[in-house]
Each structure stands twice: as C-alpha cells, then as structure tokens.
Model the fold of this input.
Amino acid sequence: MTFRRQILGVLAAVLLAGSVQARAAEPHTFGVANGQFVLDGKPFRILSGEMHYPRIPREYWRARLRMARAMGLNTITTYVFWNEHETSPGVYDFSGNNDVAEFIREAQQEGLYVILRPGPYVCAEWEWGGYPAWLLKTPGITVRSSDPKFMEPARRWLLRVGQELAPLQIGNGGPILLTQVENEYGSFGADHAYMESIKQALVAAGFTRSQLYTADGPEQVPHGSLPELPVGINFGGEREGDAERAFATLKQFRPQGPFINSEYWAGWFDHWGSGHAHTNAEAQAANLQWELAQGYSVSLYMFHGGTSFGWMNGANSDGKGSYEPDVTSYDYDSVLDESGRTTPKYFAFRDIITRATGVQPPAVPQVPAPVSVPAASLTQSASLWSNLPQPIRSEQVQSMEEVGQAYGYILYRTTLPESASAALVPQTVHSYAVVYVDGKQVGTIDRRLGQRQVQLPAVHAGARLDILVENTGRVNFGKAIEGERAGLTGRVLLGEAELRGWQIYPLPMTNVAQLPYSNEPCTGACFYRGALQVSQPGDTFLDTSAWTKGELWLNGRALGRIWDAGPQRALYAPGPWLRRGANDVIVFDLQAAPGREVRGLDHSVLDGR
Done:
C-alpha cells in the first residue's frame, strides 16, 4: 500500500468515526404510547439479552456485543454494580473493566440499544446483591429501606452513576432506552415510599431522558411497582405455557401494557455442592416463540453469563437459615457459554427471532477454540501462619466489616482460660470456619451444611484457639441480606462460658504476590506458587481438581474460588489475561500439600461432582 493510500484510508476512517459520533449525538425520544413502547413516535419491540461488564474481560466486550447482534437482538441489558465501583465511601473506580460508560458506548457502536439497571440493589447472584460491604460498618443500618443511614450513601451513589451514564440516555443521543428503579423489590417488601425515594434519586441523578420502569415477578407487581411507571415481569420458561401464564397474571394488574418480559430466565445458576444447571431448552424456545408471536418485548437473562471473578459470587437463602453459595462460573446454561462461545440454544433462539421479525441477522462471528496448557508444578510455598499481619485486639469478636474488610478470610485467635472438653459454639459463622487448637485442625463449621459447632478434644488451660473464617459470599436475595456481616458475629461460647480477649487478623489477600515464598514444603493453610508456560495465549480453563478449598490468582488477578465440593472443577482464564511464556499462578488452599499442579484445559468442567 502506498503512503498516499494509507493517508486516504486514515482520513476515511476519521470521517467515518465522525459520522458515527454525529449519529450518536442525535437525540431521540422513547416512551410509552397506547400501551406500547415507542421510539421516535413509532412502535418499537425490544429484543434484548443481559450481560454484565465486570463478568466479561474488557477485551471481549465488543465480541460479545457482536454475538448479540448476530442472534438478532437489538438491545443489551446490564446492571451497574455498586460494590465494584465504590470500594470505600466516596472513592470511585470507573476505569478498566469498571468502565461501564465505555461498555454502553461500544453497545451503541455495534448497533444496540441498552436497558440500564443501576440498582442500588441488583441481586444478580453477585456478592451481597451489589451492595458495598462498608455499608455494614454502620451500626443498625437497614438496607433496601428509607433508613437515612442507607438512603444517604445510596443517593450519593446514584448521583455518581448519573455523572457517568445520564449523558448516554436516548434523549441525549445515547443508547439507553430504559432505566430500572430498584430491582425486583416486590420479592422483598411493599414499601412504596421507599420505591418512590429511589425513583426520585434517579431523577435527581439526571435519568429523565430515558423511560423509567420497575421489574418484578408477575405476582409481586403490586408490591414492587409504582403506578406512574411501566412494569416488566421476570420469569423462567421451564414448562410450556409459562410465558402465557405469566402475562395473564400481569394483565390482572396492568391490562393496558406495555408488555415486556424484562428477565426471561433461559438458564439457571449453580451452587457449591450441587450439579450444573441443565435447563429445558425446548420449553424455553417454545415460550420465547409464544412471546414474540404476541409482539411482546423480551430480555434474555442471561444472554451471556460470564464469570463472577475473584470473590464476587453471591449466595441464596430461604431466610430460615439455609445458605447456598454460588460457584465462580456464571455460565448460567445460557445461549453463550461462560467463555462466550455459542451453544445449540443460541442457534435455536436465533432461528425463532429471525422468523418472528423477518430480519436476517448478521453472520455469527467465528471464535478461536480454547487451548490446552501443559501442567505447571507449584513448588514455591508460603505458610499463612508465618505471614499474619498485625492483629487487632478486642475483648469480643468483630465482623469483617467492623474491622474494615470486605472479602477474603479473617482469623480469630484467643487463649483458652481453663482445661476443658466441650463444644465450641460461635453464635454466627459467615460462612466457612476451620478450627485449630495449638495449630492442629480439630474441625470445620460450614454454614452451607447448617453446622453450628465443633466438639473440641480435651484442651489445657493456655491452649491457643484459632478460628479461620472465609467469607464464601454474602447472600444476595431475600430478607437474609439484612444480616449478612461476614466472619464471626455475636458471642463465641466454649460450653457455657463466653470466650473473650481476641486477636483478630484481617486477611483480604490482596498482596499474595508479595509473600516471602520459598522451596520449603508446606501443608495446611498455605499459598503455593508456580509458572504456567504458555506458547500461544488463548482462552483456557485452569484445572483445580488437585486442590481442596481456596482461591486462585493468575498474573495478579483473582480468578475465583476452588472447592472440591464441586460442581465447578476448572476456572475460566481469558486469553487476554495470559501472556506468551511464563504466567504467574498462585493458589491458596486450606488443605495444601506439596506436589500439586495446575494445567490449562481446552474445555470447562462445570459438572465435576
């Protein structure tokens, strides 16, 4: 290519970019008229799919958006995750994978509109439903309520979201058509004054140039909706006729429309200790076909689930003591799998959408296959016990939040005042504890299994008691979210006597690469380190089947949790996060031992129970 042709090509690209920006800046109108959504005065049907920017490597955002267009979608839906952005009060991060505004701009560039769900509560099988842990440092706070201790930081957060995203509303030339008020509040309460206060906070934040709406299960619409706003309904399609029944229920409350299935659960999520979700694709397809035949709008939940990297998985509870923590993978049995590759469900839904709309979507992009990576021996180690930070001294135990910690582990240490052989009974364990006496493990307490105590062997006065607690994921749904402080809360009893005089060691595990590793073998609660040699970077799945319970880091990034409870036995490692040559891998394991390896598989392992 000559220099002249190169210059002409650059000028053409600049002119094209300018025209795209000019189109993007052109305002449009979106709202409701005669029971229908209308865009610039014309009826408009939303065909959306949900995907979440923190669950997708930024380098892959555009690829996932193109997959949505290729399935025939015209919109994408995303939450905004408060705890990702405001990790301490008033300190915000909208950079890198947190740049939600860029995610939305890229959606528009790929020809997609956006449904925005800014919370402040999001659910989403995400740690504490998206709330930042520091809220729980406030004594007596009641989240999802008009409590000023909650509403003040919530309003401040929504104002900050408005700075980022209000300019991207449809009335300002951006792609945001709909902005949700709260999220499925009818499944939690019926405080309409609280809902109105969240709506007003969004208006104050500038969300006046898109259509506000609420979303609930069909039966919960009276509890969670506001009379002046349209409503979406959320439901699954595991049985034929589910969609017809759901909309029949909605019409009892809102016969005038508009009609949108704002979360169509075309899959489901996984819990530790259970199997991988295998949902009924045939019934889901039949329900989708019925909805589109009625002319209704729909948003698939999830179009692409991705991964709850690091510590960000949530948990479920029935509010009566049950606890079901979610795995790191958010594959969701969705139309795109965890790594963004098509499934048979993708093509089934694509055919249904094409027939319903009469519009042929773009060709489906090709995605390189995942790669295998040879096993790496993790030979360097560092003992947790030799690398404890300075303790906090307290007469009684304190929660993670009380000592300024959000995620990871926390260690409670005291000296037993007298000889005994009795049950150790912490009032509350959130959510997995290993108990040691004089450095020897004597038992575990697993909230998931409803365990409440450990029977100690005969111990002598002056024995050292250690309770190492993992935050396995705060509950993200239901009334249980009100009491989700992590670590130990309340009293700790040995027999009938309360134990006091604690040393508390926060272990957020944010600096694991700086530990003093050596070639000495280590057993028990240890960090192991090694180098994964990669000849050609690509997506892979790091096999964790040799390990028991802990966390894995790749090149400084916390990829996710390890637990031999299954079903997940491999962690998704995105290709852009790998480099040619040596890649640093660190594993923390509560039951570590020498000789274990990590390898890269060319497939996920989501049902390895």
Observations:
- Confidence is low (pLDDT under 50) at residues 1-24.
- The chain has ten helices and 32 strands.
- The domain at 19-357 is CATH 3.20.20.80 (TIM Barrel).
